[in-house]
Automatic annotation (TrEMBL):
Identification of the protein by name: Major facilitator superfamily (MFS) profile domain-containing protein
Annotated membrane topology: Multi-pass membrane protein
Subcellular location as annotated: Membrane
SUPFAM superfamilies xrefs: MFS general substrate transporter (SSF103473)
Originating organism: Brassicogethes aeneus (Rape pollen beetle)
């Protein structure tokens, strides 16, 4: 909390509520370094055939460049959340961006036929850095944005993930060509590594030299003054897992986000079982899935800010995810490529727009637990489920076919929609926003907020 608001507490006078134009700069920085981090999730798997040739490794080895992002979650999530809660938004952002930069710099030295281990080490650094980066949007939103902008800011933060994934589907295949000469492939890989290094460096410098820990005046009346302690932190974790409404929502969100992970990771496998030599189509279908979601994400943020319909948005999104899966199964069975593209557009729209709604709903259910802690647990459980499901569904699809694998995914989405439907719609944070006696004095109405 800012010093201004602390002094207001002591004097028992209303704090000055003010939003700063610099909030958009800070959000932009977050979007940029999140984009670069998420780009690297599919950086190598999308050109797996080229990477296999250059490094002389098998397909499962290349898959680990993406799977490592999921493996590190259950191992490092608690230390990551401790860093965010104890050190704050500025330090957490710098550490996350620095970790991403270190991973990128390591991969500058990974170009060589026997240096694939450096690729994996670089990916591990980026994956761990993502643990600190991904939970930040709701914390950044409530720290810097007015009450009526919180959901929009959170959604725009999530947009960085989608932009990174979209670029990950496009740029690697553009920068790295499948040359007969492996030395030319190496030069292309080196170019891709340098593009990332040149992109991340100025962002890291900007974070270090201008990223204030807090605004001088609070942008809303819901700032949290709880001092960090290990007992409070682990008490928050205990509260999360004994909060029945949150546990139900956590299960539902893990299914939806896990489905996104599975579909993104196994898209090639599913499509190629129906269309031979359709690798390029599979890449374009993945891109369609990401772009449709990127278009919808800012819209859902505005919608949530205006309506506060968090649970309802999650439920409707899951229903349309089920519809998208059914359409996809039918399109694949009839081998109708146009309908397959349309199905992936629907899936991408509702799988991606579910994410900001689910994060906001989780924050509502668990208030006053720190937003980053709640979001981190949602991501950790989702990524853990996604990792296990990706391996299981991959093996199942190879053994029994994509049709039954997709049926299983659809059945789990139906279970998730039922869990969402029965989850209590307890909006604790909104109740606090609307409480005029939040700090034992009347807060300033949002229409009186000063903009600077």
């Amino acid at each position: 909390m800012s010093k201004t608001m602390k002094n207001s507490f002591i004097a028992n006078i209303p704090p000055k509520i003010k939003v700063y134009k610099s909030r958009w700069y800070i959000l932009l920085l977050y979007i940029l370094y999140t984009t670069i981090g998420q780009f690297q999730w599919v950086e190598y798997t999308i050109i797996a055939n080229i990477v296999m040739r250059y490094y002389n490794v098998g397909p499962s080895t290349v898959d680990w460049t993406a799977l490592v992002f999921m493996v590190v979650y259950p191992i490092f999530i608690i230390p990551a959340l401790l860093i965010i809660d104890k050190l704050g938004l500025r330090v957490a952002s710098i550490i996350g961006c620095l970790g991403t930069a270190i991973g990128v710099y390591i991969k500058l030295f990974s170009v060589g036929h026997n240096l694939f281990y450096l690729v994996i080490i670089g990916q591990v650094f980026v994956g761990i850095a993502q643990l600190i980066i991904l939970p930040l949007p709701p914390k950044l939103a409530v720290t810097w944005f007015a009450e009526k902008e919180v959901s929009t800011a959170c959604s725009l933060g999530v947009f960085g993930l989608q932009l990174g994934a979209a670029l990950g589907f496009i740029l690697p295949s553009t920068l790295v060509k499948n040359h007969d000469d492996l030395e030319m492939v190496g030069e292309n890989l080196k170019t891709m590594c340098w593009v990332l290094a040149i992109a991340i460096t100025p962002i890291l410098i900007a974070l270090i030299f201008y990223f204030p820990p807090n605004p001088k005046c609070p942008p809303n009346n819901i700032q949290n003054d709880d001092k960090f302690s290990l007992s409070n932190f682990f008490g928050s974790l205990q509260y999360l897992f004994t909060n029945g409404a949150f546990v139900m929502h956590l299960a539902a969100s893990s299914i939806s986000i896990g489905t996104y992970t599975v579909m993104g990771s196994l898209l090639n496998l599913f499509v190629l079982q129906y269309f031979e030599n359709a690798q390029e189509d599979a890449g374009r279908m993945g891109l369609v899935m990401i772009i449709s979601g990127a278009i919808g994400t800012p819209i859902i943020g505005k919608f949530l800010d205006k309506t506060r319909k968090f649970k309802e948005s999650c439920f409707i999104s899951m229903i349309f995810q089920i519809i998208g899966m059914i359409l996809l199964i039918c399109a694949l069975e009839y081998k109708n490529k146009i309908l397959v593209y349309a199905s992936f557009a629907i899936l991408g729209l509702f799988l991606n727009t579910y994410l900001p709604a689910c994060i906001e709903f989780a924050t509502e259910l668990t208030y006053p637990t720190a937003e980053s802690t709640t979001t981190g647990i949602v991501y950790a459980m989702s990524q853990t489920l996604g990792f296990g499901a990706t391996i299981a569904i991959s093996l199942f699809s190879i053994e029994y076919g994509a049709f039954w694998a997709l049926i299983i995914i659809t059945a789990f989405l139906a279970l998730g929609s039922i869990l969402t439907l029965v989850t209590p719609n307890t909006l604790k944070r909104q109740a606090c926003f609307n409480n005029k006696n939040l700090t034992e004095f009347k807060s300033i109405p949002q229409q009186d907020v000063e903009h600077s």
